[in-house]
Specification:
The protein is an alpha+beta fold and 67 residues long. The chain has 2 helices and 4 strands, in the order E-E-H-E-H-E. It has a two-stranded antiparallel sheet. It has a two-stranded parallel sheet with strand order 3-4. 6% of the residues are buried. The mean pLDDT is 86.
Length: 67
């Protein structure tokens, strides 16, 4: 994962905290999601206001509750 020019490993514990730290707790402006069935719900929680999520791939159906 690339965040403000910094590469992050999603398998490392605390990588979400690092994303929020790099974005001044606002969340990323863009998320390129390659496993939507596993991550889209969480992406919606951390994306910046007016941010965009591009779904590139999914291995199963996806159900979300947009709020």
């Amino acid at each position: 994962m690339l965040c403000h020019g910094k590469a992050l490993n999603y398998k490392d514990s605390g990588y979400i905290d690092k994303i929020l730290e790099f974005t001044d707790r606002k969340g990323p402006d863009v998320i390129l999601e390659m496993l939507a069935n596993a991550n889209l719900d969480f992406d919606c929680k951390i994306i910046a206001q007016k941010g965009r999520i591009a779904i590139i791939g999914s291995r199963d159906s996806v159900t979300i509750t947009p709020r």
